Structure formats: C-alpha cells, structure tokens
Model the fold of this input.
Amino acid sequence: MIYLDNAATTLHKPQEVVDAVVAAMGSLGNAGRGASAGALDAGRVIWHCREAVARLLGCPRADHVCFSANSTAALNAALSGLIGPDGRVVTTVLEHNSVLRPLARLADERGVTVEYAPADAHGFLDMGALERLVTPGTRAVVVTHASNVTGNLVDVARVARVAHTAGALCVVDASQTAGAVPIDMDAMGLDVVCFTGHKGLMGPQGTGGMVVAEGVDVRPWAEGGTGVHSFDRRQPLEWPTRMEAGTSNAHGLAGLAAGVGFIEKNGGPAAVGAREHTLARRLYEGVRDVPGVTVYGGWGTDPGRCGNIVALNVGELGSGEVADALAEGWGIACRAGAHCAPLMHRALGTERRGIVRLSTSWFTTEDEVDAAAGAVRAIAEG
Amino acid sequence: MARVRVPSLVVSFPTTAAAMACEECCGRRGLPGRMIPLPGEVSAGCGLAWKASPGDRDALATALADDGVPVEAMTVVELLEFVR
Done:
C-alpha cells in the first residue's frame, strides 16, 4: 500500500512510538491514584509528555498542557470554557467541523454570535476580511493553522495580533500542523492551541489536548475524579487538573512523548515539515499539467504557504470514484469527500463532488509520490 | 520489624502534575525525598506528597520556588516508619 492519507492520521509511526506504547501497556498504573510504583511511573510518563509538548509548542508552562482524547475534545472544551452567553466569535470558512459544530452549538444554546471570514479563490484566508470582522467586543478569534482540505497555511501570529488589538483571544486549531510546522505560542501570542497526537506528532490515536497561555481562564468542561482534593464539591481549578477529569491515557501519552522525541531528533517541526512539503510539491508538479486535473489550494500561486496536502479532482469524476480507482488500481490510500470541512468546500465549489486529498508524511518516499502522480495521470487519460 | 513514628517534612501539591514536577526538580538537583500518598494528617482526601527530612525544608522551598513548582503546604508531621 502507498499511504497518502497522512492528513487523516499518520499510519506509519516511528518504531520508538510503538515500543513506548507497548512498554507502557506492561508497566503503568493509574497516574495520581496512589503512590504505588506503577501509579508513579504513569505520572512520570505523563509529566514527561507535558514537558515535551510544551517545549515543542513554545509554552513556558508544562502544567498548562492539558491532555484529551483528540483535538475535537480539546476544541469543544476550550470553546465552551471560554465563550459565555451572548459572546461574539470570529472564525473562518477554512475550519473543520471540530470548530464549526461547537460554535454552532454555542450559537444555539448560549446566543453566541459567530462570524465567518471568507477565503480567496485559492482557499487562502482573506486576512483583510478577518480584520474587518474582529471588532471590540469580540471574545475570541478561532482559526485553523492550516486547512485540512487544501493544506493552505494561516498566519496565526498575525491573526493573534488582530485579535489582541480588539481585546479578543486567539484560539488556534493546530490539528494539521503540530509537529510539522513550527509553533511558538509564546512568541506568536497564541492564547490557546489545540492539537491532536496522531497526525504530525506521529503519536497514537486517542491523544491530543490544549495548551493554554498563562492568564487565560478556560472553565472546566468535564468534572470528575482527579486524584486530588477528593472532598471538593466541584472540579479543582488548578492547571492542568481543571481540564483533565478522569483517568488519563498514559499508554497513549507514552507514545506521544516518543513521537515528539522522534521529531526533535530529526531536526524539529521545521525539518520534518520541510520534508513533507517537498514531497507534496513533487506530487503537485507531477499532476499539475495533466489534462483534466484540477488542483485546489495555493500550490500554483504561493507554494511557500502550502503544507503537505495536494487536493485535486479529475475531469468530471466524483472524488470517491477517483479515490476508489487509486486504491483498487494502484493500492494508494487517500481521502475523498468533504473532509468534515463544509464551508471550505462551499468556498471552493466542491460541495457536490468533494475533493481527492493526498497527503504526505515523514515516511513517504519520492517513489510513492511519483507512483501517485502516475496513477492520477492514468485515471485522467483513461 | 519495629514501627516508629518519625518527624517528617511533607510537601503537598495542588495537582498530580505539580507533584511530578517536584520529583523531577528534586531528582535533577539531587535533593533527598520520595513520593508518598498524601497523609491524612495534612489533608483529607487523596493525592501525592513529597516526603523528606524536616532539615531539608529550606533547600526544597528554594528549589521548588526557583522551578515554579506550585506547592500547597509544607508540614512537619510524625509519619510511620518501619525499622528492621
């Protein structure tokens, strides 16, 4: 199989990640539940992972790294915990449903007003429009670091400046970029960064979380067992306990820490992302001149702001047909359809047919992207 | 095996994460002590605490403050020890 669905999950993991999870499965107790050797080892593993994620994402406080099951859980918790009744939020049409649906819920249940900044013809965020929408009284600007459909990057440091000028918070969905694009949330002025562990960070599924800048008050989303202050009636408000009710996924976090270690060992997110970008660009160059192939996103206009995704369609074929042909004919795994990003597809005019998304990882090879380009050409010529 | 009660310094924390940060801090700096279940004499409920000798109090307080490790309390209590 040629695996080119890394924007969905990185199927190929570093061996260190696998080894760390297996070792953890055989040794860890429940972190914070007593002082047995296994419980302490679990606590150490989780603390080590907090330090690794804080270091990677530029957060000075490891205890402000709060883990959850995935980016969606983190975004739900962050948005619910930050935005009160009748608040005003600005987001973008680039967003995944993990942002759009929690905001729609807040609109329905708390009377929150949600404004959507548009994209240009190539799928880049219209920064001018966003700046006009972010007015005093806006509680938060919620923005993805990169579209999960096109891979187009967003200048989140600039978004943060716009947000702060209006007195708003900047909440970033880094699901597509953590581990593959440098993030220094302290230097960039990001208030909350939500991430998933199983994509660019190369960790196990079931890991993710939010990193919260000092001074930002996110109210607890879930309440429950914490291993501390058991007689308190409500969830303690200390970090990170306030956002972590229940047993943590120590086994998964052992793997996530190993994934971060692998990225650091290989030069950090800039180096890893550059490799993925170079491979994606090679794929783009292999398909861009194929008659009938339409490539979406910024590769033709601003490739420096593109990530690891090549989004395309072939002739009048449905994206599912093309994905099925790639799988059946060439053993290529990719992702067709709407990618849980309805507004991005509406902006690109691909609501009906969807898009074929091919995405690279550190483990992708040049031969694999060349084979994929050849397969797309064959389908187009067929 | 004999049971004796020994005055001990107990450092308590607001979170498990803070307890782990304490352990990492003390290990890195070579400060003595170990993690124990939070004694009931210090606080009801559950949690972790760092146990050390009362004479280590100042060194621990300085180190934890320098590293920004949140501490709930430092208390001297008589804790059970088993002597062979």
User: Anything to note?
Assistant: The radius of gyration of chain A is 21 Å. The interface with chain B takes residues 31-35, 40, 43-44, 46-47, 50-51, 61-63, 226-232, 236, 238-241 of chain A (CB under 8 Å).
